[in-house]
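Researcher: Quick sanity check before group meeting.
Model: Go ahead. Protein one:
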Amino acid sequence: MRYWQRRYEKSGLGRIKNPFGFYNQTRDVAFTRPSILLPQSIYFDRTRSLALTGDGLTLYLEERLDSGVIRGQLGLGEPQAGDDLSQTLQLDRIAGTFDPQQSAIAQVRYEHDGGRVVAAVSNAKVKARIESHHPGVSDGDFYFTPWIFSLQYNQELWSLTAEYALRRSGIKNFNQSSLNFDTTGESWYLQYTRRFYDDWQWLIRYDSLVSNRNDASGKAYEANGQGPAHTQFADDLTFGLQWTPHPQVMLAGEYHRVDGTGWLPIQDNPDSSATSRRWSMWLFQLSLRF
């Protein structure tokens, strides 16, 4: 006679990894990533502190069905808001401090037929208070509410993955209207990976980011004197190769051809006018695990 548990529940308290998309919770483990650099339209490195973790409570539920497994996760707590977020939002325009508020993030994920088909929906409501230290400027509120839809199809030798996101973000309640904004960004990527010779894998991916759906080309942004138009979008064509000669060793290399600088870290490129719209990048990585 066989026994199995159809429902599994647990909870945790402390610093938790945020459950969104397919890769965020394991993004720091090279052996779990399909490429050296994750699709930057979804997994921003320039606002890494906000995306990666939060401090609070997480609830986890797993239900085993006849056709697959459904998993749900809910996190409640305060997001991490490091200097990378302040620089990306250009909060240096005002003197103040960033005070994270109670926020929530949730994901529902379904794995069909042993993982042959995987689908997930992720949503977050992130809030923070911006306490102004500038005379005559009131406090303001930051909000970020992304929706991410994920789908993957797996076969023995290849996988096809796609994710799509709508990201509404903004600042409100400052008494100076020039400091407030509300935008909805759009992101998506399509990725194909192929496994061969047992320990090799190659990848091709097209990754697209638009910072503001109402100004996809960035022309209005540039016309208002805010910076180059190409800082408002990025289209990235990636080719990658991985070799795992030993279970504890992985070598990887990849090439990126990018049109736009929408996801370049502002902290590394403070003068956007000095950046080029079209640029390339080679990456190489040696990963070891023990």
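Researcher: Fine. The other one?
Model: Protein two, sequence then structure:
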Amino acid sequence: MYLLATPGVSVEAITCTAGNVGARQVALNNLALLELCGHAGVEVAIGSEVPLEIPLVTTEETHGDQGIGYAELPPPRGHISGRHAVDVWLEAVRCHPGQITGVVTGPLTNLALAIRAEPQLPMLLKGLVIMGGAFNYPGNTTPVAEWNTHVDPHAAKEVYAAYEGLPEAKLPIVCALETTERIECTPAHVDAVARAAGAGPEVLEADGPPGTRSRSGNAVVACLSDALRFYMEFHRLYDQGYVAHLHDLFAVMVAAGEASFEERLVTVDVETESSLTIGQTVADLAGMWRRAPNARIVTGNDPEAVFDLMVRRLADLARMHG
């Protein structure tokens, strides 16, 4: 929603992988959201529906059976592309060399497969932003692993390896848990979007019964509210407060050049062998490996500025398409 509401941003295509839910459901969600937001026609493609080497695990308990919480959207009129996600990646970068910014907010499976097919892909991209990992910070899936990386650690390992030694400007910007969990969305933020859109108040009660639905007459506000309500209830269930961590929102704001952040140049590797720590992202902060850097990890951000921008952008979208 944020990207579709941002002037100067063009969404070339959306490729889908499994993670929170299966890849096919992810694709249907994307088609429905594009239509809700007045952007039908953007290509939505599926790639691999399973990780490279390990069985797929999904997490419907976190984001609902359809992956978008309580939000209910009409079945999309558009269709999933007949092309494989890898072909979509490759055509985009070959037709627009140096102009495409890749953003991966799920497992890195499709990108790893695309790099296998075209090893020059990192140099053909303008840049890459990854939401994933955790550096010197507790994981949200195991004590040390973040979800997106844990779903397909072998893909993540391949992607980071492909970037080792490339020019600094080409290295992926990694938005990991230690900074994305700072983007804590509260009921007040959702209410602010609704009010700024002229849709009236939108109340999400921290002690409300599970499964409550939005009564907003604005379809964009209702979708946002119902999706986030489920995620807030999930955090409440685990005594983490009535909040939603908007990991991906921050990542796409970085990709669009609208989020300020601090970063550190490092070498990143991913554990794939240990049953105890599989999926852990390790950053060589002290240069002990004596390997070339392959990532720019975000070390600081400004949550207040993120939410100010979110309210402004999504309110504009809701006024236009709600």
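Researcher: One line on it for the slide.
Model: Residues 150 and 279 are 4 Å apart (CA to CA).
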